[in-house]
Amino acid sequence: MITVVNYQSATLLSPQRSSSGSSHSPRSSSSQPYLSISVTEPVKLGNGVQAYISYRVITKTNFPEYQGPEKIVIRRYSDFVWLRDRLFEKYKGVFIPPLPEKSTVEKFRFSAEFIELRRQALDIFVNRIASHHELQQSEDLRTFLQADEETMERLRSQETGIFKKKPADLMQIFKEMQTRVSDVVLGKEKPVEESNPEYEKLKNYIFELENHLSEAQKHAYRLVKRHKELGQSLSDFGKAAKLLGACEGHALGKAFSDLGTKSETLSVRLQKEAHQLLMNFEEPLKDYVRAVQSIKATIAERANAFRHQCELAETIKLKEINLDKLMLTRSDKVGEAELEYKELKAESEEATRRFENIVRVMNEEIVRFQDQKTQDMGIAFHQFAKGQSRLANNIADAWRSLLPKLEACLS
């Protein structure tokens, strides 16, 4: 049993979490395996469009395959992308943890709030990987946590895939995709899809969950915005009331001044509560929207694997018919056709095994995902309700304490 300092989505909600992204220390017992990762100290490097944020990634572990008990490396966002892409390519069927989106707007991507949100989300991302029973064994994870910056830069530059292809190659890919879509629309080709009721149930669940989470996150954003705006309005009102109090004398001026001071105090509390609402409610919802999108990518991989399996099965049937014809006519191409048939059959069997493995892994992953979601969403909504209750009580107590002074002024 491996103990991993586990940062699921709930870590955004944990009161024990420090500003550095770490929580408790690894267990002191060296016999108990542990893996603790912290993404810390974001620093802006470079200027203009070349500017980026670097992070210190600190790993503490007693895993024998690691270089030592502690390792500190510098990583940038593209390094996390490299890790995500490598895992997605190698671990078919596994729900690879999502990355935070990359802002392209200059004024947002280097703001203090955005940088901190990004840091925490990256911390969660890498610790989710470290807490997964399969992903934690990944050689790519060990490389990410231990390699020097030059090695990581070289690995990133060696990556291949659709987004590394030349423009001409991409145009050809898109043309082929358009042709296939047109054929389906015109009825020339029927899409090959599983007719499995459980698979359909899974797809419907994921798409509905994405819609509902997106809607909830949108309204959570509005709540955060409303708290910030109300806090700013109270601050502005407080300043105006204090200036008005300065113009008046005696009891009335004092009442205005007290009203202004109380408004400014409540403004600070509202701004703090808006930040808590962002961190403890909106961000976890947004994080799960991204998680569902990652699941959709895995579903697409499953669909591709099923389609490939079916296409190979159809091709084998054609090869069998062709081989029978050649054998009947005693053609000298029988040997070559038999070899092609055997190779194709082996490829088909491997494709079937690959598809069945994806199905098996996804069935395990969806159970794990639902269990974790229940826990994380429960914490998020509990924190939301507790925060709103605390804010309402603070506001009521503040205005209530001011009433005697205002009543004295009226009398």
| Gyration radius from CA atoms, angstroms | 29 Å
Kindly state the number of beta strands.
Answer: 4
Beta content? 5-15%
Gross morphology? elongated
Reported for the largest beta sheet, the result is: 4 strands, mixed
Overall average pLDDT: 82
For the biggest β-sheet, the strand order reads 1-2-3-4
Task: Quote the distance from N terminus to C terminus.
Answer: 72 Å
What ranges have pLDDT less than 50 throughout 5 or more consecutive residues?
1-29
Order of SSEs: EEEEHHHHHHHHH
Q: Into which percent range does the helicity of residues fall?
A: 55-70%
Count up the helices: 9
- Structural class estimated from helices and strands: alpha+beta
Secondary-structure blueprint:
Elements: E1 3-4, E2 34-45, E3 52-61, E4 70-76, H1 77-90, H2 106-109, H3 112-131, H4 139-146, H5 149-157, H6 167-185, H7 197-247, H8 250-328, H9 334-410
Parallel strand pairs: 1-2
Antiparallel strand pairs: 2-3, 3-4
Characterize the structure shown.
β2 (34-45) and β3 (52-61) form a beta hairpin. With 411 residues, the protein is an alpha+beta fold. It is elongated, with a radius of gyration of 29 Å. It has a four-stranded mixed beta sheet with strand order 1-2-3-4. The protein is built from nine helices and four strands, in the order ββββααααααααα. 68% of the residues lie in helices and 8% in strands.
